Amino acid sequence: MGIKSLLPGPLGFGTAPLGNMFRAIPDEEAAATVEAAWDAGIRYYDTAPFYGAGLSEIRLGEVLAGRPRDAYVLSTKVGRVILAELEDPAARDLGEKGGLFEHGRPNRIVDSYTADATLRSIEDSLRRLKTDRLDIVWVHDVAQDFHGDDWLAVYESARTGAFRVLARLRDEGVIKAWGLGVNRVEPIELTLDLDEPKPDGFLLAGRYTLLDHERSLQRLLPAAVANGVDMVVGGPYSSGVLAGGQHFEYQKAPAGIVAKVERMKALAARHGVSIKAAALQFALAHPATAAVVPGATRPGRIAEDVAALEEKVPAAFWSALREEALIAADAPTPGSAA
Length: 338
Hints:
single chain; 338 residues; alpha/beta; eight-stranded parallel sheet; two-stranded antiparallel ribbon; 39% helix; globular
């Protein structure tokens, strides 16, 4: 198990914003952003049918279709089937994530984690992405934030449906790896305790960031290391608030979060550190982390992400964050022992 050997490097590109998350993005701007990621040497791309009801996959596929398929790693997700019939994107029930893709395509999105739905979702994704194969497939959002009190029943449907299908496809060599792509730690913890089927890794969004990491440190990440299962960290900028945006947890950031970010930025400025460098390097410092996949909708953001990984961050900065209780005392940081 493990996916680190599959990934071409520590920095990938998360394409949720290409599904018109938060705002309507011109096709030309979306394409230019993917082109910028490619030109910067990024070769891991993560997407999902859910992102704009297939819009992110379509936009990503348009650009990558002109690139050698063996030159990049591609992951998408299952759990949502996109239909031809239409609905009002703003009226969708997305649990805690209401209005997230209201600017996306109006195609109806149906939640389904059965075996048949999983196979259909993969076929549809291949068509939208204009490719003949997927490298990694994540089971998307089997958690409380989208399904509320019903999440365990949804999880069980995925366990007996999507999990088994993806394990079979991996064993047959159709895909290289599978796991969960979620915004909560509980479904990953539950999956690590299963006797079968065994996933290769997980994509955890928003739960191992400068702003939110203590819950993951308690049990999840130690268990991942013990099981030899790698984590891809999504949303390392906490929906954008750590990178100059206004959102946290995909909604307008509350005053308390904004104040905490300002304290972090003040420390970063004092030590000559960019907050993006702090965010990405913090997420990558844990031994369970195989890669980070920040999203972007403007080409210039890609260069910032690449530069953030190369930036030298002094040990004194991490010490200052600990002293002010802005990060957990036991959180690994670059250069520290895990």
